[in-house]
Structures are given as structure tokens and as C-alpha cells.
């Protein structure tokens, strides 16, 4: 679904080392790990393009050339496929190059998500923009980013995506203070999504200290005032510049200064490809829904599960 807003720019931080997937990521960017037959990063770029964000900036680091090559044309490969008359594979190869205009900036040092976002300042300029993390895949059948874009245009400030998570998992996330949830005006969008004001945010709290069970996932629509805030944000947890810390500061500022933060509660399908077990689940879940793979895979899974 294309966005009806004027927001057109997206920033995709992709400079991480992918240490959780070593040795597979020793020579290959973690974003290029295949989810069935497309790299994880292509799902994210396709999501941005589907929401009308056709100007995409990737924040990269060393050892990321394969990612840039993937979204570039491949004349020799395309000519070979064309000569063979393999239009299906040719279309699949060209799909990545047709998603939008993609730019690249090096982060240099890995100083945290906040610093990665700050690297996009010159490209973004003075306009709202989206941030999509490559570890989080949102099912294309579920609406999220378009709702977030429209919410930002309606309410101003910044908008984040959150999900309800079990207490035992809460310490792996940034968590919002949503005590104003029941008193919020315009609490539901026309599509039925719940939007709540964010009173504060805590990065990876212990369960007993978590202000809610609403955890931040990897989708943001940010007011450009976030850049000035990030410039002033000292290193936090992990000695990194945390986007969570900057957003917490913005939450208490007036809308006229780009302040205010709202959260869209997402209840759809999300796949975490940053964790080995979750990555395997993502591959199986998406493959089961494929017309070319689903029937055979479901049959095999039933047989496999019966033998466990």
C-alpha cells in the first residue's frame, strides 16, 4: 500500500557486524542472509518502497559491498538470463534494482543506533523520515509503516512501533511508559490501529522495572528535530548513543519544537532475523505461505514433527 503522506525518505541502518551469525557473516553482510530466496534487507527495502518511501539511505560499514551490488544492475547476469529466455529469473533479479533510489553512507565506527541515524542527517535534511531496522521483517500482508507515516503527519513529533511482549522477554527491548494510554484522544486510527502517547522510554529494563509490556520494534518515523537531540545525547547503555535516549528526551518537548512521541501498537506478523532461532522460524513461516513451496513444505513439516 502506498503512503498518502509527503514523507518520501527512509534511513536503513545496516552497519552491524552480525556477530550472532558467525561464521556465516565473516565475509558476508548479515543483511544478505537469505530468507527463502531473497536477502533479508530486500524485504525491508520493499516495505519502504511499498509505503511510498522511494528515497532510501543505507547506513553501512566495512564488508558491505555485496549489499550494494545486490541493489545494482548486473548486466552480464541479466544478458545471460535474457539469452536463455529465463524471464522468471530475470524478473527476480531486476526486482531489487527497481525498488527505489538507494544511497549509501558509511558509519565508520559502530557507536550505536542513535549515531547511525545521525549519519543520515545531511541526506534527510529538514523533513520527517522513516527508520527501518533490517533485523525486523514485517509481513507484507500487515499494515504498519503506512499507518505510522499518516500518524506522524496527523499528530506531528515522532512515531514509533511497539508490540506487546511477554515479561520474560522484556529485557531485550526498549520499553515505553504508556500510562496515558486509556486517556489518549484519537486513540484508534481509521484502520483500527491503536495509537498511544509515549510518556518515557527505558532501554532494556529488568522485568520488575519495565514501565509496560509494550516493547519498541524496528520501525520509526522521526521528526528532523531528532538530529539536534542526538547531537546532545551522551553515550548510554553499552557506551553507545541510544536512539531510545534521544526519543525519551523528545517525548517531553512541545510539538512546536518537533517534540512529542506516539506509539503505534502492532499486532501483526513480525519476523526477527537477528536471532538464530527466530531467523529459522522466519524462513519456515514465509516459505510455508509460498505458492511454489507451501504445499510440499507443509507436508514435510507434518511428517518431520510426527517423528519428533
UniProtKB/TrEMBL annotation:
UniProt-listed CDD domains: UGPase_prokaryotic (cd02541)
Domain of life: Bacteria
EC assignment: 2.7.7.9
UniProt-recorded Gene Ontology molecular function terms: UTP:glucose-1-phosphate uridylyltransferase activity
SUPFAM superfamilies the record matches: Nucleotide-diphospho-sugar transferases (SSF53448)
One Pfam family matching this protein: NTP_transferase
Keywords from the named record: Nucleotidyltransferase, Transferase
Catalytic activity: alpha-D-glucose 1-phosphate + UTP + H(+) = UDP-alpha-D-glucose + diphosphate
Domain annotation Nucleotidyl transferase: ranges: 9-284
InterPro entries: GalU_uridylyltTrfase_bac/arc (IPR005771), NTP_transferase_dom (IPR005835), Nucleotide-diphossugar_trans (IPR029044)
Record has Hydrolase as a keyword: no
Protein biosynthesis keyword on record: no
TM helices/strands, residue ranges: none
Assigned protein family: Belongs to the UDPGP type 2 family.
Name assigned to this protein: UTP--glucose-1-phosphate uridylyltransferase
Amino acid at each position: 500500500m502506498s503512503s498518502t503522506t509527503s514523507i518520501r525518505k527512509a534511513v536503513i541502518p545496516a552497519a552491524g557486524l552480525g556477530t550472532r551469525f558467525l561464521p556465516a557473516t565473516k565475509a558476508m553482510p548479515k543483511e544478505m542472509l537469505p530468507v527463502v530466496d531473497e536477502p533479508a534487507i530486500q524485504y525491508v527495502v520493499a516495505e519502504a518502497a511499498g509505503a511510498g518511501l522511494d528515497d532510501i539511505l543505507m547506513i553501512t560499514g566495512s564488508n558491505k559491498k555485496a549489499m550494494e551490488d545486490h541493489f545494482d544492475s548486473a548486466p552480464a547476469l541479466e544478458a545471460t538470463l535474457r539469452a536463455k529466455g529465463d524471464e522468471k529469473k530475470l524478473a527476480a533479479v531486476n526486482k531489487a534494482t527497481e525498488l527505489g533510489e538507494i544511497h549509501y553512507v558509511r558509519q565508520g565506527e559502530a557507536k550505536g543506533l542513535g549515531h547511525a541515524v545521525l549519519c543520515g542527517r545531511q541526506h534527510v535534511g529538514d523533513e520527517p523520515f522513516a527508520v527501518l531496522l533490517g533485523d525486523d521483517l514485517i509481513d507484507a500482508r500487515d499494515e504498519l509503516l503506512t499507518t505510522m507515516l499518516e500518524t506522524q503527519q496527523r499528530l506531528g513529533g515522532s512515531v514509533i512501533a511497539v508490540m506487546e511482549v511477554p515479561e520474560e522477554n522484556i529485557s531485550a527491548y526498549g520499553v515505553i511508559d504508556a500510562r496515558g494510554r486509556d486517556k489518549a484522544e484519537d486513540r484508534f486510527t481509521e484502520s483500527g490501529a491503536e495509537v498511544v502517547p509515549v510518556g518515557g522510554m527505558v532501554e532494556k529494563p529488568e522485568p520488575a522495572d519495565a514501565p509496560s509490556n509494550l516493547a519498541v520494534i524496528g520501525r520509526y518515523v522521526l521528526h528532523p528535530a531528532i538530529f539536534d537531540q542526538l547531537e546532545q545525547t551522551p553515550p548510554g547503555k553499552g557506551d553507545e548513543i541510544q536512539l531510545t535516549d534521544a526519543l525519551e528526551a523528545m517525548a517531553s518537548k512541545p510539538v512546536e519544537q518537533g517534540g512529542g512521541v506516539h506509539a503505534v501498537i502492532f499486532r501483526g506478523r513480525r519476523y526477527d532475523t537477528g536471532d538464530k532461532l527466530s531467523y529459522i522460524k522466519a524462513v519456515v513461516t514465509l516459505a510455508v505461505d509460498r505458492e511454489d513451496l507451501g504445499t510440499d513444505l507443509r507436508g514435510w513439516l507434518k511428517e518431520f514433527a510426527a517423528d519428533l
